[in-house]
Structure formats: C-alpha cells, structure tokens
TrEMBL record, chain B:
Glycosyltransferase listed as a keyword: no
InterPro entries found in the cross-reference section: ABC_transp_permease (IPR001851), LivM-like (IPR043428)
Gene Ontology molecular function terms on file: branched-chain amino acid transmembrane transporter activity
UniProt organism field: Alloalcanivorax xenomutans
A GO cellular component annotation in the UniProt record: plasma membrane
Keywords: Cell membrane, Membrane, Transmembrane, Transmembrane helix
Record localization: Cell inner membrane
Transmembrane segments: 27-45, 51-69, 76-96, 102-122, 129-147, 180-198, 230-250, 270-298, 310-329
Primary localization class, coarse: membrane
Pfam families: BPD_transp_2 (PF02653)
Protein topology in the membrane: Multi-pass membrane protein
Protein name: Branched-chain amino acid ABC transporter permease
From TrEMBL, chain C:
UniProt family annotation: Belongs to the binding-protein-dependent transport system permease family. LivHM subfamily.
Protein name (Swiss-Prot/TrEMBL): Branched-chain amino acid ABC transporter permease
Organism classification: Bacteria, Pseudomonadati, Pseudomonadota, Gammaproteobacteria, Oceanospirillales
Transmembrane segments: 6-27, 59-80, 92-115, 135-158, 188-207, 227-248, 255-280
Record organism: Alloalcanivorax xenomutans
GO BP terms: amino acid transport
InterPro entries reported in the protein's UniProt record: ABC_transp_permease, BCAA_transport_permease
Length: 273, 352, 294
C-alpha cells in the first residue's frame, strides 16, 4: 500500500521531500508501539496521521521531534538522516509542535508564552539582558512586534497579559499554537489540536491551520480524531493501526480503502464475514 | 482615585515593556528611593540602622538571589547560608592576600560563589525537586566545614576573624551611615539588574523550565545551560550578600554564622514575600526582620512581657505556620497581596 | 583489625538509628508521594513530650509513652486537616516546602510548651559493655538494633497481612484507582502519618536515650536525608541498608580520613556518598525508576 509518485498532485510533485520516515520501529521493553512505518512529508503539505486509539500516532510524533528514539529505522529530515536527537536540537532545525494535553507554561502570560517560542531567535547574552543593553533591548522590541502579529492572527489580544493557567481550554490550545508559530517552524506537528473543542472552536482552529499553511507556507503534520476535519484539511493522509501503516493516500483514496474502513469499523467486517 | 491608569495610553511597545508602566508606580518608587537616600540616614538612630536596616538590605539581596533560583527557575536550594559563607570568605582572602581594589574584590567574590553554585547545581541536571534540596544541603554542610579549615581564616587561633577596614573609590567605609549607603547602593543596582534579567528572554527561559521543563526543551530551550545559569546568577547575588553580611553588618567572619538556619531564613523570606517576585523579596526580608521586634513590643505593651527565649520559640512557630499558610492561600506571597490591594485601589472609591 | 571491626560495628549501629528516622520518611512518601522534611521534627517533638512529661510532670514512662502516641495521632490528624487536605493536587515541590513549614511549626510548638532545656530520656534500656571475644560492644546498641528489627517486622506484617495494610499499598500504587474503589484518602493519610508518628516515638526513645533530649537532636536527624536518597525513596529495605552503609562509611571515614583532611567530616560525608551515588543512579539503591512522561 505504499503510495507511488503518481498519486501526488502536480504541485506536490514539484516540492521536495521535507521529512522521510523509513522502516521505523519503536519498542518499550516488550511492547511494540511502531512497526515498519514509512512515509514522506513534502514541503507545503498538510499531512495527517489518523488511526484508532493506541495506534501509535503520538509515538510517531514523539519520534519525529526527538522525544523518543526509534529502536530501528531512519528519519531523514531536510536530506539529513538522523537517529538520536534531543528535542531542543530538532527544535533548532525548525520542528515545532503542540501537545495532546496542553503543555503551556502555566505561570506565564499569553504574551510571555508566545515570546518564549521566539527563544531560538534571540541572541542577547546574559549580561546584555541584565543591563538591558544593546541586542537585549533591540531584540525584545523586534520579538514583541512579531509576537503581536501572531496574537492578532490568532485573536488573542484580549488575553495578552492573562496568566494562561486561568484561560479556558480552547484559548489555551490557541496560545499553544501561537507559541509553536512564534518559532517560525518549517514543520509544525499538531497533536490533536481540536480534541475537546466544540464545533465553533473547531472551525476557528481549522481556519488557523489552513491560514498558517497558506500564509507562512508551513508544512503541517496533524493528528486528529475528527475524520471530517481531517478529510477537509489534509493533502495527504497516512493511517496507522496497532503501530503499523495500513493505508496512505489522498483523503478520497483513504476513505475508500477497505482496510481503513475495516480498522475503523471493525464490526462491519464481522457482519460481512 | 489617586491610583488610576486611565488616560495613560501606551503608544509604543517600548513604553509597555518599561519596568513600571504606570506613572503612579514610578512616582512611588522615586519617593521610596528619596526617603531611603535622603531622609533615613539623617533621621534614623544608629541602632535602627545597624540592627534593622542593614540586615534588611542584605537579606533582601540574598532573597533576590534565592528567588531567582527557586521562584523563577523552580530549583529549590537549602544551601544559601553556605554560599553566603563562600562569598564572605572569598572576599576576605582576596582582601588580605592581594592588593586588588575593593570593587574588583566584591565582583570576584561573587564570581567565585557562582562557581561554587554551578558545581553544586550540576546534580540538578539529573535530579529534581526534593532530591535537589538534599544535594544543596550537602553544599551547606560541606562548604561550612571546608571554610573552617585553617587556611581560609589564615590560621587564626579562634576561628573568628575581623573584617578589614576598606575604602571604595576614595570613600572609606567607617560609620554606620557609610555602611548603610554602601549596602543600599549595591542593593538598588543589583535589584535593577535582577529585574531586567527576569523580564528578559533569560527570565522567560527560567520560567519555562520551572513551569514545564519537557515542553521547554521541545521549543528549543536547553535545560542544562539554562539551569546552570540560574545557579550561577543566584549564587552571585547570594555571594555578594555574604560579603556585605560579614564586612558591613557583622564586621567579622565565622563560617558557623552562615549555618543551615540562615538558609531557612532566606527561604522563608522568599516564600512569605512571594515566589517569583522581586518586590516580594523586599517584603519578605522586612517581615522576617520585623517579626521578632513586634513580638518584643506587642506583648510588653499589653503588659505580658515575654522572655527572650519564649520570643524565639514563638518566632519559630509563627514562621513555620506562615510558610504553610502562604503556600496554601497565596503562593505568590505578600507581593501578590500588594498587587491585589493595588487592583482594589484602582477602582476605589467607585468599585462598580 | 580489631579496632577496624569495632569502628565498623559502632558505625553500623549508628546507621540503624539513621535508618529508623529514614523509615518514617519512606512510609509517608510511599503512601502519599510527599517528601516529609518534618519527620526529624516529629522525632524531636515526640522525644520532648516524653522527656517533658516524665521529668517535669513526674509521669512514669509507661504512661508518658502512650500519651505521646495519642498526641502524635492528633498531630497526624491536624496535619491532614490543615496542610494536606487544602494542598491536594499541588506540585510536589510546594508540598515539600510546606513540610518545611511543618518542621518549624512542630519544633516551635514543642519549645513553647517545654522550653529548650536538655532532658534525659531513660526508659531503662540497659547500657553495659559486652565483650564479644576481644571486641567491645554496648548492650544499648544491640538492644536498639533488636527494637528496630522488631519494628520493621511489625510494619511488614501490618502492610502484608492486615486490611489497612492492603489499603495503604493500594493507595501507594495509584491514588485515583484506590479512590474509585471506595478508599477514603483522608483516613489513609491520617493512618500513615500516625504510623510515621509511631516510628518517630520509637526513634525519639532510642535517640533520646543515647544523646539526651534537646533541640540539637534535630540536626542529627538531617543525616537521615542522605540515607533516604541512597536507599531510594520508596523502599523500606533500602532505608535500612542505606542507613547501615552510611553509618559504617561515616564512622570509618571519621577515623581513617579525618586525621588527613580535618575532623568533623561526619557533617557532610553522608551527603557526598549519597550524591555521588545518585549521579550514577538517580533512583537510589532500591528505589523505583523515575520515568518521565508527557
């Protein structure tokens, strides 16, 4: 079921491969979380990973951003194969992410959280910061301007100085997206960005994702349970089940794939058998 | 009516990022500084300056140091006393063994303490929370023991040595007023530096590590240098506080004077004043300095004078209970109570 | 050689006492995940009440000790009510700092009540020299070791064979799961802190008998902290083994290393052993591995 190049739209064929995942295997002791998974994410795509609970979607994301190290197999990012990497290294190479269970800095304000996302773009030294001098002063202003753009983009103006711990869930998810965007990532990993949201919030979030992809040209890799949203947003989908890849293709192809339908609606298969 | 922000619009990000964006706050700070520099030295008695104001100023500095580590970076330390001792002994040994000018000696003593802080902060890279608390206790006990070795007090017979007379920029520090001014100037400058650090990118990195270190790593913050920087900066402040404590307040050095209970006192100031607040350090230090005095005055005023011993017992009990109280009710301490008061004042007298 | 053995055994017996204090920590940490800094203060608190009631009020020990036990249960109840209950779901580090508050509140309270003068606490454990071959031992130390062994056996029996013991183990495993099968956490915590109080009473008797009851006793108990880390926070055998290692290591170091680098190294030696070990194995000798999750 590995996709051939002819499955891709002309625009995608032109763009280069940003991340290539080959034969990735991940084990925790005796438990096999991922087995022989492989796919390609191309520049500018919205790429989705779907699958039932426990299929290994989050594990896959954790491998991509260096939180887990695959037991075997390779990840090739921007043409560079890599095996063991700490998360802060992958971050410095342009991979940002959000989490299924929000991982914000709860004691800090919305603005500070997003400013923290600019971390990799700051160069001022400790002493410059202490004396509020030179690069420290200049950078603080530049980053503030950039972050205010993100705040405007995500409509967070009214909670700019509120500690994020006190914000409602939907807004926290948005702040987390803002923090990831502040790093100007090339590859943005979103782990269930719409979990627990109501319809309206989901629509907002979907619009943000499309806008990010459109305006900044950011490549997006998405995990989401809401199949409707995934079908609407994605250029390409890979389906995991029990740690193995069972399908890949455009939304249309995937939704017609009998193996995928079987994984999602296992009951049907029993009835027909 | 007085404390109002209406009409003060910030037109630039610069203005919004100022340390005190509100005009009233700026005026208030200037008034406090004017009183501290121009009124107190001419009105306060020697007793007040020596036994209240000097410890208050120096404790505030130590509390700022500890708060950077505990309140901003989330790494607990019970070794404050030991690090103050390192600063004090480093300065003393530099003063008697070299001809360096005093300001240089102060900075060097701070840097040496930073080194010690980083050394004992290294375990923080592998261990967290209360594990770290115990390793900083190791620093406390080990450093005090080490500084009792004869080389460090130049083979003095009693182990107690007196601080040298010294001068800075042609100003010789003799009277209690001189000592007050020197402590005040150092405190004001260093508090400003600390405030700048915690509102800058460095401070945000520390807070990110404090709030969620795994997430911090994923946005590119390297935990190791970030934590070690917090240890270094924190110890620098604490080291300078140690120098001032020995040179300006006690006038003598003894490693035992910086025992584990010094560490606890500074931790109390930070918790009671407010974790993660520079203002809180001043409030906490003032509180810890003033409580024994109130315990002395109030019962005698009520006709129930307490013995000195009883006062110290009650003090221990009160501090213990207050720690629990503040951690439960208001983890941001007195600084938070202050800002709530300001919020109320903003609307007063028409709260609706 | 004889001298070495004597030092070693003396150290091991001192280690038994460290282990006794560390045991109280482990019990509370296992059941509630709280690093109870106040355990040492509980030992002093119990010792001061026993010593005070006997010396100042003239109560016999067979009365003073049970009364102190009741007081410790009261303390456990107050701590649960005043500190633990409002602090549910707080971060461990905040809970840790609050136990520092408990530490001082307990000491302050005991001092307000009894003052800080030194008292004896002699419940009648005989202290005679015993010769084992050529080796000189103190009967006091041996009896102490036996008491500690009995206490540990009792605790193990309690946790394996009684209903309450099973409940405690369930809570230690998973708070939420335990709650969902109808276990009331507040009761469990009062029980656990009471048992820690019982351990503190025993430690108070043993320590107080050896050194007298006075506030500096609490400094000696600071040594139980590295014992705890070395043993692993969750392991009772760990606390015992680490107590023995540190007691012996410290005694040998003071005798053999002290003359070279200067005396008084026992104030920090235990910490250095524990730290060095933890850099290699952060979870301690028998502790559960710390797994990071996100």
């Amino acid at each position: 079921m590995v996709a051939t190049v002819s499955d891709l739209t002309p625009r995608e064929q032109e763009s280069e491969v940003l991340l290539k995942v080959e034969n990735v295997e991940l084990r925790f002791g005796g438990v096999r979380a991922l087995h022989d998974v492989g796919f390609e994410i191309r520049k500018g795509q919205i790429f989705s990973i779907i699958g039932p609970n426990g299929a290994g979607k989050s594990s896959m994301l954790n491998c991509i951003n260096g939180f887990y190290h695959p037991t075997s197999g390779t990840l090739t990012y921007k043409g560079q194969p890599r095996k063991h990497m700490r998360p802060y290294v992958t971050a410095s190479q342009g991979i940002a992410r959000t989490f299924q269970n929000i991982a914000l800095f709860k004691g800090m304000s919305t603005l500070d959280n997003i400013m923290t996302g600019r971390h990799l773009k700051t160069k001022a030294s400790l002493l410059e910061n202490a004396f509020w001098f030179g690069r420290a002063r200049r950078e603080e202003l530049e980053h503030r301007r950039f972050c205010e753009e993100i705040i405007d983009f995500l409509n967070l103006q009214h909670v700019r100085k509120t500690p994020v711990g006190t914000l409602p869930y939907g807004l926290q998810k948005r702040v987390e997206l803002g923090r990831a965007l502040a790093a100007e990532p090339e590859l943005l990993l979103l782990d269930e960005p719409m979990a627990g949201m109501n319809l309206e919030e989901k629509q907002d979030m979907a619009r943000f994702i499309l806008d990010v992809n459109d305006e900044y040209g950011t490549t997006i890799c998405l995990i989401e349970h809401d199949i409707g949203v995934v079908m609407d947003l994605s250029d390409r989908i890979v389906v995991l089940d029990h740690g193995e890849k069972i399908g890949e293709g455009t939304p249309r192809e995937v939704s017609n794939d009998p193996k995928v339908i079987e994984a999602y609606l296992g009951v049907q298969e029993q009835e027909s058998a | 009516m007085i404390y109002r922000e209406s009409g003060q619009f910030k037109k630039t990000y610069q203005a919004d990022q100022a340390i005190l964006p509100l005009r009233q706050d700026r005026i208030f700070l200037i008034l406090v500084l004017l009183v501290a520099f121009l009124v107190i030295p001419f009105t306060a008695s020697n007793y007040v300056m020596n036994s209240l104001l000097l410890p208050f100023l120096i404790y505030s500095l130590a509390a700022i140091g500890l708060n950077i580590l505990v309140g901003y970076c989330g790494q607990i330390s019970l070794g404050t006393g030991g690090f103050m001792a390192v600063g004090a002994f480093a300065a003393w040994n530099l003063a008697i063994r070299t001809d360096l000018p005093m300001p240089v000696i102060f900075v060097l003593a701070g840097l040496i303490t930073s080194g010690a802080g980083v050394l004992f902060g290294l375990p923080a890279l592998r261990i967290k929370g209360f594990y770290l608390a115990v390793t900083t206790l190791a620093a406390q006990f080990f450093l005090v023991w080490l500084l009792q070795r004869p080389w460090f007090n130049n083979y003095s017979a009693s182990g107690v040595i007196s601080a040298p007379d010294f001068h800075m920029f042609g100003w010789s520090i003799e009277t209690v007023t001189d000592r007050y001014y020197l402590s005040l100037i150092i405190l004001v400058v260093m508090a400003l530096l600390a405030k700048n650090l915690v509102r800058s990118a460095t401070g945000r990195k520390w807070m990110a590590i404090r709030d969620m270190d795994v997430a911090a790593e994923i946005i590119g913050i390297r935990p190791m240098p970030t934590k070690l920087k917090a240890f270094a900066v924190s110890s620098f402040f604490i080291g300078i506080a140690g120098v001032l404590w020995a040179f300006l307040y006690l006038g003598q050095l003894e490693a035992d004077a910086f025992n584990i209970y010094t560490s606890f006192d500074v931790l109390f100031m930070v918790i009671i004043g407010g974790l993660g607040s520079i203002l809180g350090c001043f409030l906490g230090a003032a509180f810890v300095v003033l409580v024994p005095i109130f315990l002395n005055i109030i019962p005698s005023a009520l006709g129930l004078p307490l013995s000195t011993a009883m006062i110290s017992y009650i003090e221990v009990f009160i501090f213990g209970s207050l720690i629990i109280f503040f951690l439960i009710v208001e983890p941001h301490g007195m600084a938070r109570l202050w800002s709530i008061a300001k919020q109320k004042l903003r609307l007063w007298p028409f709260p609706y | 050689m004889m001298f070495f053995l004597e030092v070693l055994i003396g150290g091991l017996l001192a280690g038994v006492m460290y282990a006794l204090v560390a045991l109280g920590f482990v019990l509370i940490f296992k059941a509630s995940g709280i690093f109870n800094f106040a355990q040492a203060a509980m030992v002093l608190f119990a010792a001061m009440f026993m010593g005070g009631m006997h010396n100042d009020w003239g109560l016999p020990y067979w009365l003073a000790i049970p009364i102190t036990l009741v007081i410790m249960i009261g303390v456990a109840w107050v701590i649960e009510r005043v500190v633990l209950r409002p602090m549910v779901n707080q971060e461990p580090i905040i809970l840790f700092m609050s136990t520092i508050g408990i530490f001082f509140a307990l000491i302050g309270f005991a001092e307000i009540f009894w003052g800080s003068r030194s008292r004896t606490l002699d419940v009648g454990i005989p202290s005679d020299p015993i010769f084992l071959g050529d080796m000189l031992l103190q009967s006091y130390d041996l009896i102490t070791a036996a008491i500690v062994a009995a206490l540990v056996v009792g605790l193990v029996f309690f946790s394996q064979k009684t209903r309450m013991g099973r409940v405690l183990r369930a809570v230690a495993d998973d708070h939420q799961a335990a709650q969902s099968v109808g276990i009331k956490l507040s009761t469990v915590w009062v029980v656990v802190w009471s048992i820690a109080g019982l351990v503190a009473v025993v430690a108070g008797i043993v320590w107080g008998g050896a050194l007298g009851v006075q506030p500096v006793m609490v400094d000696v108990a600071f040594k139980a902290l590295p014992v705890l880390l070395l043993g692993g926070l969750t392991s009772i055998p760990g606390a015992i083994v680490a107590g023995l290692i540190i007691g012996a290591g410290e005694a040998l170091a003071e005798v053999y290393l002290g003359p070279i680098i200067g005396g008084g190294i026992d104030s920090w030696f235990a910490y250095i052993i524990a730290m060095a070990f933890m850099v290699w194995r952060p979870e301690g000798l028998f502790g559960e591995k710390i797994i990071e999750r996100i």
